[in-house]
Amino acid sequence: MPVTLVVGSQWGDEGKAKIIDYLAQDADCVIRAQGGQNAGHTVVNEFGKFVFHGVPSGIFNPDAICIIGPGTVINPIDLLDEMEELEAKGISLSNLFISDAAHIVMPYHKEQEQLEENRLGGYKIGTTLRGIGPTYADKAARYGIRAGDLLDSHWLRKRNEIVSLIRGISSAAKREENLNLLDFYSDKLKNRIINTQKLVHSLIQQDKNILVEGQLGTMRDIDHGIYPYVTSSAPSAAGLCQGAGIPPTSVTSVIGVVKAYSTMVGAGPMVGELKDEDGRFLQEKGKEFGATTGRPRRCGWLDLVALRTSAIVNGFTGLAVTKLDVLEGLPEIKVCTQYQTTYFDGRGPQEEFVSTADQENAIPVYRTLKGWKKTELDCDCDDSKDWGAVDRYLQLIADTMDAPIEYVSTGPEREKTFKY
């Protein structure tokens, strides 16, 4: 039962879509398990450059079934725009399906999120304002609208009335407006909405090759991340099983995607954030700007403390290290090995992840490593005297996370991904 989970090991933006696109060429099914249009997954291949917010990154394999899973939330307007762009490039969508259990993002969710962020002022979380959090909140409160609701007009009207009562939408015109929007969504998407649980179970029974795509990273996990500066779903391995409808016993491998340095978008503590020339170097060379918002990403050296925690939470069987090329040419490279917290509570350096409050005041403890001049990892090791520095860097990551490096990436294109 070859089921592979692809999980972000840091704060997101690790390059998961690139790894999915690479692995999907041999996949029978690719499932996007959680999240919504709040984070972009960038793929660069022979078809061009694409930023996905809902469509699974395996869509370029015409033989693979692509599923938007039950753990996701969907803004149909954005999804339809993505689908239109793909079809215009000649990409087949015949195998794209939506779980009937996925929840629908409505305009009032986006309005609510904007109001909440405005009220928080200087304490705001720094969300993408796509309505993802409020949609998940409605899901947990049991009055969300699911994709399957779009298939039954009588049931859909009942659900719309319940939501209107809960949200205090007293205007008959506004209620009708929301219902008309849902009817539009139904008309456009009803042929793709199915019981994916049954389909996925059948694929597992047939020993099909299944890839599960996570969104964001473990440090943004609602249970294990830097709460409250987290997403509203669980992008960890267990969360991907839940969001895809796959039993944990069917999982054969968990690939942790690690960017060769650290980045973060939005608010929250980032112990090793660099606000100096090194930080600007990483940001500019790595083109570190959010795929969804365009916001500049905060940059720092690789954080081994965060990676240790990610490894503990996810149980990685293998790793994929991306953006090694960004570090190319630096004479020295640093890694954060510990968080120094003695400044405020008398404890010594911590090698394990500490609370969000502790991180707000922690100071990074660095180890300095030799840099390298090039990252042509597909060449003969003997042809590059700098290979040893790259190899030692990768081995440090593998040792920290107690998992072997299986793939490395030295550029955004598919052909710049190699087996290690």
Q: Keyphrases for this structure?
A:
Adenylosuccinate Synthetase, Chain A, domain 3; 420 residues; Adenylosuccinate Synthetase, subunit A, domain 2; alpha/beta; globular; 20% strand; three-stranded mixed beta sheet; ten-stranded mixed beta sheet; Adenylosuccinate Synthetase, Chain A, domain 1; 19 strands
Largest sheet, order of strands side by side? Answer: 9-7-5-2-10-1-11-15-18-19
From the structure provided, what is the oligomeric state, counting identical versus distinct chains?
single chain
Sheet having the most strands: 10 strands, mixed
The number of strands is 19
Task: State the CATH architecture of the largest domain.
Answer: Alpha-Beta Complex
The CATH superfamily of the largest domain appears as Adenylosuccinate Synthetase, subunit A, domain 3
Average pLDDT: 90
Number of helices: 13
What does it look like?
The chain is an alpha/beta fold and 420 residues long. The protein folds into 3 domains: 159 residues, Adenylosuccinate Synthetase, Chain A, domain 1, CATH 3.40.440; 87 residues, Adenylosuccinate Synthetase, subunit A, domain 2 (Orthogonal Bundle), CATH 1.10.300; 161 residues, Alpha-Beta Complex (Adenylosuccinate Synthetase, Chain A, domain 3), CATH 3.90.170.10. It is 34% helix and 20% strand. It has 13 helices and 19 strands. It has a 10-stranded mixed β-sheet, with helices on both faces. A 3-stranded mixed β-sheet has the order 14-16-17. A two-stranded antiparallel sheet has the order 3-4. The longest helix has 18 residues.
